[in-house]
Amino acid sequence: MKAISLFIILLASFVSLKTHAKVVLPDLFSHNMVLQQNSTIKLWGLAKPNRVVHIQPSWTNAMEVKTGKDGKWQLLLQIPKADLQPHCIQFNDGEKSALTNIFFGEVWLCSGQSNMEMTFKGFESEFVAHADSVLDHANKDLPLRLFKVKRNSQDSPGTEVDGTWTTCTREQVERFSAVGYFFGEHLCKTLNVPVGIILSAWGGSKVEGWMSEELVRKHSEELFNTDFADSETWKKPEVMYNGMIHPLKDFCIKGICWYQGEANVNSPETYEAKLSDMILLWRTLWTNDSLPFLIVEIAPFAYDNGEQAADLRIAQRKVAETLPHCRFVSTNDLVLEEEEKNIHPSNKLDVGIRLAKQAACMVYGTDNSCVDYPKVKGFMRTSSDLTILIQSDSELRLTTGSKTIEGIVAKNSEGKVLPLSFELGEDRKSIVAKGTKLAEASTVSYAYGGFVLGNIQNACGLPLMVFNEKIP
């Protein structure tokens, strides 16, 4: 019996030695990965201590790097322009290994809460439109690669994430973010280059969860004085940043898509400052002051306090308008009437396409049309009417089937709704209000509520953005 036990121990030691003899790479570097084209990336891993590791990329000269006492190594690697050809990297520190089916292309991070995380499987009683068609036509040869970061809440900044790069098989697409997939697919086809999407999202998470401890304390020290049950550690501030963002910092990305805010609707007055600081933090993390950041508007939903939800949407837009290299994607027209109590609307396709169009315009300069949403730019009063001036690249129109403007409300100084009528101006770039109570109008709002749907759009089909304005 002792001889058998000794044999098992020796065998285990031998297997362990063989395991550690081969170069070990973080999960971010795996078969099927996409590396950011036209960039210098950091490649790192583990091997035996004080050992020379030979590395042979298929597209450039061989290199050598020596491991430290802890076995760690890293080097910088030039990634050329995308060529739609699979590449490989061979490693040898005495034992050979390789990464295969590598593409050069555009790498984007998609983050946020459940509307970003929502997979093609959907949630209970909530589904993704077009899911069956997407899954039926899933194509593993499509040069789109998916990496899903496993949920991980940590109290201190981490260095590793769990996940693996996958091709677009039906099984993998079904378990991936619908918004992330649609964004990546459209971008891939628009640019005609491979695209890699890293998904790092957690349903129900607040913006504070994606910020560093120092940054959270800057805004609200009291959040660290709350006790959380073991099953609710994900509600703590900074934990998603520590476990799911900080470990990604050395992986080269082109930009970020952000779809979050539902969990912060009770405090819209602080969201603009928090999100702005979070964006600056992430840019610092990736040492890129101009890292593109695309913000998705939280969708209409019957929140208990709808005006707070509307204020949060306005805060999201202000961040995109204030910070450079940010763009905004409106969703106030991408819900169905029957989805009033569905916080996860089924239309994820148009969200992804609108994100891709913003990226194509701001980052790649390939398409400058149909990306600017109509918005209020001022007012003109006369004795007989009030004109709301709209900034728009094209003429305004009502959505198909509409005969009158919906979702627009004027109030007096006491907050009472006034019985005014509204119609599009003759120039088709304004809204004209009329009525006997016009002189009392103090504020005017549009789509301002939890689930208040408007019906004004421009010639590209982009909706007039939510507003709540005081009338001069």
Q: Which CATH C-level class of the largest domain is it?
A: Alpha Beta
Strand content: 15-25%
Largest sheet: 11 strands, mixed
Structural class of the helices, strands and pairings? Answer: alpha/beta
**Sequence stretches where pLDDT stays below 50 over 5 or more residues:** 1-20
If you had to describe this structure to a student in words, what would you say it looks like?
The chain is of the alpha/beta class. It folds into two domains: 258 residues, Rossmann fold (3-Layer(aba) Sandwich); 96 residues, Thrombin, subunit H (Beta Barrel). Helix content is 24%, strand content 25%. The chain contains ten helices and 22 strands. Strands 1, 3, 4, 6, 7, 8, 9, 10, 11, 12 and 13 form an eleven-stranded mixed β-sheet that branches. Helix 5 crosses helix 10 and helix 8 packs parallel to helix 9. The protein is elongated.
Structure keywords:
472 residues; alpha/beta; Rossmann fold; Thrombin, subunit H; 2 domains; eleven-stranded mixed sheet; four-stranded antiparallel sheet; 22 strands; elongated; disordered N terminus
Secondary structure topology:
Blueprint: H1 2-21, E1 34-36, E2 39-46, E3 52-57, E4 63-66, E5 72-79, E6 87-92, E7 96-112, H2 114-117, H3 131-136, E8 144-148, E9 165-166, H4 170-174, H5 178-191, E10 195-201, H6 213-219, H7 239-245, E11 255-259, H8 268-285, E12 293-296, H9 306-322, E13 326-329, H10 349-362, E14 375-381, E15 386-391, E16 397-398, E17 408-411, E18 421-424, E19 430-434, E20 443-446, E21 456-457, E22 467-470
Parallel strand pairs: 1-7, 7-10, 7-11, 8-10, 11-12, 12-13
Antiparallel strand pairs: 2-5, 3-4, 3-6, 6-7, 8-9, 14-15, 15-19, 16-21, 17-20, 18-19, 20-22
